[in-house]
Give the backbone structure.
Amino acid sequence: MQTDSNARSRGEILAVTGKGGTGKTTTTAIMAKLLVQQGVRPLVVDADPPVSLAYALGAEPTKTLGLFRKKLIEDPREKRRIADSERHMREFIYDEVLMEVGGASLLVLGRAEGPGCFCGINELLKFGIQSLSDKYAITLIDCEAGIEQINRLVVNRLTTLLIVSDASVKGIRTAEHLSRVAGEYAVDGTFRVGLVINKAGMDIHPLEKRAEEIGLEIVGLIPEDENVAEFDLLGTPTTALPDDSPCVNAVRGIMERLKLIDPVG
Ligand SMILES: Nc1ncnc2c1ncn2[C@@H]1O[C@H](COP(=O)(O)OP(=O)(O)OP(=O)(O)O)[C@@H](O)[C@H]1O
Ligand SMILES: [Mg+2]
């Protein structure tokens, strides 16, 4: 089993959520990159079935919880052996599903392969996050778009919910909705919520006003960054973005503000 040798005292579990295409995966990948640069090995969870975070980190998602579940369905003996004990199950996920990529540990949800409904795989995801995150100073979860996953995930153990929005009042309204749903499902309600505006233009005053009205704190603005678009076009991992790329600088600022990394310089 691998543990984080640079573990900080607190176990941060941060979920990145928001509506479709707002920049969740890009933000999560850059956060992982910045943590690794500071010597922290994060547990990074690609909780979106199309596995885009894995690619953003430069990994081929050859091992997923979806494939693991299929194996269990196809091999009843293995299923009995593993399902009998949580410890076996956790060790199996460590050994057979967790991947190492660029200084981070990556857990990929993937598609639900084979028969059966999607519920089983969500339970596996929940179990995987709960049992693995204890070993890491910080866990980053790239959620699928929308609210569904918020209540299926480990909301009761989240420490930070980062909502990524586009630069529109409509986007802020969706963020408000997500924040409310998370609050309703949270068991202890102690997680903080931060709003990030991605592809932010010059004048975001109307958005700031709206966010203030609904009590959401804007923790950072990420500018439109032509490097991000170019890297995605070429299939280059997001983590290979230059350290001084506008997007990377902005995410660094957000992480410093949230005290997830130490200030540089
Ligand atoms: N700051 C930025 N500047 C330029 N392009 C960006 C920026 N952020 C994201 N993009 C582009 O926007 C698109 C969506 O980004 P991303 O995949 O990170 O969003 P997402 O919220 O994870 O999407 P999904 O809901 O599909 O998972 C990508 O093509 C990405 O290259
Ligand atoms: Mg995504």
Notes: Residues 169-185 form the longest helix (17 residues). Residues 18, 20-26, 48, 52, 145, 198-199, 222, 224-225, 228-229, 232, 247 surround adenosine-5'-triphosphate (ligand 1) (CB under 6 Å). The beta strands are 12-18, 43-46, 99-101, 104-108, 138-142, 160-165, 192-200, 218-223.
